[in-house]
Amino acid sequence: MDAERVRARLLEAVGPKGLVNDPAQLRAMSTPWRDSWPSEPLAVVMPGATAEVSAVARICHEEGWPLVPQGGNTGVTGAGLSRPGGRDVLISLKRMNRLRSMDAGDDIMVAEAGCILADLQAAAAAQERFFPMSLGSQGSCTIGGNIATNAGGINALRYGTMRQLVSGLEVVLPDGRVWDGLRKLRKDNTGYDLKHLFIGSEGTLGIITAAALFLSPRPRARCTALVGLESPAMALRWLRRLRHAMGEHLTACELIERICIEVAMRHQPGLRDPLAQPCPWYALVEAGSCDEAAALDERITACFAAALEAGEVLDGVIATSLAQSDALWAMREMLAEGHRHEGISFKHDVSVPVSQVPVFIDQAGEALAARFPGIRQFAFGHIGDGNIHYNSLQAAGEPAADWAPRLPEVNRIVHDIVHRLGGSISAEHGIGQLRRQELPRYKPAVELEMQQRIKAALDPLGQMNPGKLFL
Amino acid sequence: MDAERVRARLLEAVGPKGLVNDPAQLRAMSTPWRDSWPSEPLAVVMPGATAEVSAVARICHEEGWPLVPQGGNTGVTGAGLSRPGGRDVLISLKRMNRLRSMDAGDDIMVAEAGCILADLQAAAAAQERFFPMSLGSQGSCTIGGNIATNAGGINALRYGTMRQLVSGLEVVLPDGRVWDGLRKLRKDNTGYDLKHLFIGSEGTLGIITAAALFLSPRPRARCTALVGLESPAMALRWLRRLRHAMGEHLTACELIERICIEVAMRHQPGLRDPLAQPCPWYALVEAGSCDEAAALDERITACFAAALEAGEVLDGVIATSLAQSDALWAMREMLAEGHRHEGISFKHDVSVPVSQVPVFIDQAGEALAARFPGIRQFAFGHIGDGNIHYNSLQAAGEPAADWAPRLPEVNRIVHDIVHRLGGSISAEHGIGQLRRQELPRYKPAVELEMQQRIKAALDPLGQMNPGKLFL
């Protein structure tokens, strides 16, 4: 392939502003923020409009050039990176960042794929609405990437994953045709719901260029609490007690293992131990209501008092100010960052039925300790969704390099247990390059076959994001 | 095709209990409750287990016999009926009616496709949980049919359509293989989400045999109110006021035109006019909360007082007892039945963006009156979802037979307006046989093509429910 010719044809499609030449920018778009995926694009385009995306796709379709869509490059599975060897055209949606419409009366906004998540949250808030998707990278991830990976985040317990927040999509198909599915409808039963195919498809079926997104009423009362617990089983009891008492007001329930807080404190000097005494586990919960007078703090306090009385929690703090709430959540957001400082970390983003979370944590901990003495468990995550970020660190004091080769075996041990418990080896991060080798071990063959047939039906040339999701 | 041979082979698969011979039963399964679709099956089977469904599908696959799945036969588009001419094997799921598991701890139950919706509501309630799907036919419709048609109903405003309530599916594929996708997971990002393809596919891709279903906390407080209004635009203002004040507690908002209540009273002698003076339009709203002390009635009363003061409602009644609530909803459930007594009715189950409901009702009313003087508008439905059951009756006193030939033109007028407003010609009932001729006029060609490609990918022989959904 003549790289000069590729760039010349693409320049035709996107104009000088849309062809990326700056080495620093190229490097940023080929370098993931976590882990390391060798990546080298054939060319990088950054179109400014759907018509330009369409033109790029059409050219790639005619020429047989693979096309890799990228949003904010905040993914952790390598799904949005070009493969090594300079074979792929990388298409960044970041210049497509217009809020096309804010229909507060319909509780819907239409945003282009490159809009930054935090900007959309702010745009909704400015209209007294709430866009509930919220995750650590919200300052740099794009809504297109959130949709392509069906992002989860901390509010999924109450509001669902990204999938539940999409009313319609605009998608450029592999051959360059545009599907205008930007519907602002809450009900539409006119055949297969194609948007759900593109949501979570990791760029393997087409390029999402815009989305119609549902807005919710803005919560006007909020309460955050952190409790200390003996075990994940106690966290589950606490969750059930809260869910019973708080019902629709419970928006988040996060499980945190003690070591996560210790590591965070070690590397973030300003961070204080949240409770007077260290506890083996913690649960961080939040409730919200559109009713200012909902008295959420009284209700959580009552739950907490009852749980303390029953010996179901060890200690706790209920935030009495917005600043206290924010501090608790800031600590939560530091956890993912924390273990980067601890040497090697084997990461797993798994889900099991909610009732099986304690079983999973017990079994995985035992199996790993038996096989790799000294291995440290570093678990946190969305227990309300059954979604645990189950990470493992090398034994204290041992060199990370010695442990690196153990990754496949650690993955196997953890994922086999997840699978036996009816769980998923990727709850919210997706498959990308990271898990595509493992997926066939856990997915029923008939399901893999259906996925391949759909891929072949909608992307017959295999042009969209090759080397991701599928083997 | 030798019908004897067909029946002999099917008998092998399902045993004597699974082959339907009783003429009354055969008639019931070939006769829709509304409208009339000529229907005559080649044979009717009623398997008792997934393995039997699988065997039936395999035989049909080998023999090239079309297969038509049926649930409670409560659909209104002819999607669950065999075609005339005795060509189709009708497969009823009604004997598959086991609740396989009730996992209250996970807030999930696993039900076979033939379970009656009302039975599942009751099973959830017995565990202090809530299964929110609720519609007029709940005493006879099956959960499999609800899923295959992505049912909507009155609680969709708060809980979403059927799609939002499904955690996993078990599906028998056209070739008889079983896809076990019965996951009890709230997050699973491991490739295309196939369950969303089968949900709403109207039996054209496979046979849903069981589903894992999400349960919600059971509401412990409830308040129902009916207000009288001047116009749909006022209903929208009332909805927005409520949504602002009640937020997540608002579960339903139904619009009702005066004529609907008049017709219902004419044919239901026990029914009383709900307000002292007749009003042109009504809105029936419900709020629910898991918090017993939520004081929903006080909050709705305050909204009502403010709206009355602002001249935004004409009159109203707030139910002060469960019996009063139930009576208001019973009236609502009579509406669909009401217009059957009034001669001919041209029915439309449409949706538009919520803000466009008044525009749609105005425009459709004007256009129809201009073309067919005297035509009566009979509109009610889920205004909170933008979903209106927009029906038209022949001019008062005129013979229905004279009006029958006008159906295609009435459909065209109504659906063209819906389409111009960005709406859907089938909000919750589906396409089936009823709308398949019209769909290509309104669906983008590229979307129809994708749907056909998916159909061909998953049902390459075109064996599943031919003559439905597609042209």
TrEMBL record, chains A, B:
Q: Name one GO molecular function term.
A: FAD binding
Q: Which UniProt keywords apply?
A: FAD, Flavoprotein, Oxidoreductase
Required cofactor names: FAD
- List the SUPFAM superfamilies: FAD-binding/transporter-associated domain-like (SSF56176), FAD-linked oxidases, C-terminal domain (SSF55103)
* Top-level taxonomic group: Bacteria
Q: Can you tell me where the transmembrane regions are?
A: none
Class of the enzyme per the UniProt entry, highest EC level: oxidoreductase
Listed PROSITE patterns? FAD_PCMH
> Has keyword Transferase?
no
One Pfam family from the record = FAD-oxidase_C
Q: Name a single GO biological process.
A: respiratory electron transport chain
Q: What is its EC number?
A: 1.-.-.-
Q: Where is the FAD-binding PCMH-type domain?
A: 37-218
Do you know which InterPro entries this protein is assigned to? FAD-bd_oxidored_4_C, FAD-bd_PCMH, FAD-bd_PCMH-like_sf, FAD-bd_PCMH_sub2, FAD-linked_Oxase-like_C, FAD-oxidored/transferase_4, Oxid_FAD_bind_N, Vanillyl_alc_oxidase_C-sub2
- In which family does this protein belong, per the annotation? Belongs to the FAD-binding oxidoreductase/transferase type 4 family.
- What is the designated name of this protein? Putative FAD-linked oxidoreductase
Species whose genome carries this gene:
Pseudogemmobacter humi
